[in-house]
User: Which sequence fits this backbone?
């Protein structure tokens, strides 16, 4: 019951609420003190926020956020643009042979974005996104807890797993669909040299 929760045992309640309510993600990597507080009192925080009408989602890979399905048009558009940003970055790095699950080790800078724009020019032009716009989007990713600026480059944070999970799910759906199509074609295609007539007869 939430009425048994002692607010004195949640000293960072205000800090966490402001962070989550501002649409940000809490990342273990970027905010270890706040993460330790959340981890130690996870059950109480989840129950208290739920009583206040908020759904706190916590991912074991090291990030947490307020789950909100009712996004306004501005936030939805920003999320779509961030999804595109991360998609083209992941695709570029995959082409370079880098492991996607080690994205936190990547150095995201102007040089990488220039390569990304060159490789995905048609897609990004259709969305009116160039290198400078992608740099602005990275600052927005910083605001929401998906990245953090490190001097003249950015580091992707664990919360980006939300997008990576989505991309991998879509890729798996595409592979499954392709396999089903191939199996269907194979079943309908006669084997080589298969005849339906009277073989060997004059």
Assistant:
């Amino acid at each position: 019951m939430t009425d048994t929760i002692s607010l004195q045992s949640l000293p960072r309640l205000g800090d966490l609420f402001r962070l989550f309510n501002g649409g940000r993600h809490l990342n273990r990597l970027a905010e270890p003190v706040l993460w330790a507080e959340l981890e130690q009192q996870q059950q109480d925080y989840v129950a208290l926020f739920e009583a206040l009408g908020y759904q706190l989602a916590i991912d074991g890979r090291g990030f947490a956020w307020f789950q909100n399905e009712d996004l306004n048009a501005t936030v939805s558009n920003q999320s779509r643009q961030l999804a595109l940003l991360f998609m083209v970055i992941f695709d570029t790095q995959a082409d370079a042979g880098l492991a996607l699950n080690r994205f936190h080790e990547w150095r995201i800078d102007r040089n990488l974005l220039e390569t990304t724009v060159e490789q995905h020019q048609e897609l990004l032009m259709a969305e009116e996104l160039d290198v400078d716009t992608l740099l602005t989007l990275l600052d927005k990713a910083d605001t929401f807890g998906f990245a953090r600026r490190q001097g003249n480059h950015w580091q992707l944070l664990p919360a980006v797993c939300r997008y990576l999970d989505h991309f991998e799910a879509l890729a798996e759906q595409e592979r499954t669909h392709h396999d089903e199509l191939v199996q269907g074609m194979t079943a309908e295609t006669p084997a080589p040299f298969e005849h339906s007539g009277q073989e060997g007869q004059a």
Summary: The chain is about 55% helix and 10% strand. Residues 87 and 167 are 7 Å apart (CA to CA). Residues 189-202 have pLDDT under 50 and may be disordered.
